[in-house]
Amino acid sequence: MAYSAGFTPHPKVSYANAAPTGTGSEAEYLEIALTERRDPEVLRDLLDDFMPDGLDIVDAVETATSASASDFAHRLEASTWEIRLDGVTPQEAERAVAAFLAAETVEVQRQTKKGIRTFDARAAVASLTSAEADPQDRGDRPGEGPCAILRLVVRHLTPVVRPDDVLSGLRATADLAPPVAAAVTRLAQGPLDTESGTVTDPLAPDRDATAVATAPGGSA
Questions:
Q1: How far apart are alpha carbons 156 and 154 in whole angstroms?
Q2: Over 90: is that where the pLDDT of 138 sits?
Q3: Hey, is 214 helix, strand or coil?
Q4: In terms of DSSP H, where are the helices of 63-192?
Q5: Total-model pTM
Q6: Which residues, 6+ apart, have CB-to-CB distance to 46 below 8 Å?
Q7: I need a labelling partner for 198 at 20 to 30 A (CA). Which of 4, 68, 154, 191 fits?
Q8: What is the pLDDT of residues 162-199, one digit of tens each?
Q9: Which SS3 state, helix, strand or coil, does residue 55 take?
Q10: Alpha-carbon dihedral of residues 24, 43, 72, 4, nearest 10 degrees?
């Protein structure tokens, strides 16, 4: 692993757009600078061997150029989130989603280091849908009561709009107040395909460049 220069060298590791505290995630990314070239799959295996249970390194890709590495964070334009609402019926969730999407703006407040900040949560939401949770997929969530699932795509704007801000917006527009804390999981983050409204693979440019470089006649 490469280290910075100076009296107190630090490993050159950067985390891109980490998920908020208290949320789960299946799509976190970090960049690691190395002193020599390594096979990405070998590196993935080595890193994964040292991770605690439940934290898995699922993929590793070599960045094609220094420019590609420097702009990786800018590829993370949006995130797909799943919000599990135990104690909320699908009908309640559907009504709340409709009210939220119908609003031109949805102002919410959040406590920051500089005090209370008010901002529009609606502008960042590219899509928001609701569905009934699969009764066979309750995991360790409580009870046998109703459970609704929200799926949302949120653009990474400034200020950052988090899933809990959207929940605050649903409370403000439709008085939706789940009786227990919501379970929030990030499913994906990357470039936003505006035509389909989906979040795509941020590592695709590096995969494509590597494939070209390693193909017969390609440049390394």
A1: 6
A2: no
A3: helix
A4: 66-70, 72-75, 90-102, 163-174
A5: 0.85
A6: none
A7: 68
A8: 999 999 999 999 999 999 999 999 999 999 999 999 99
A9: coil
A10: 110
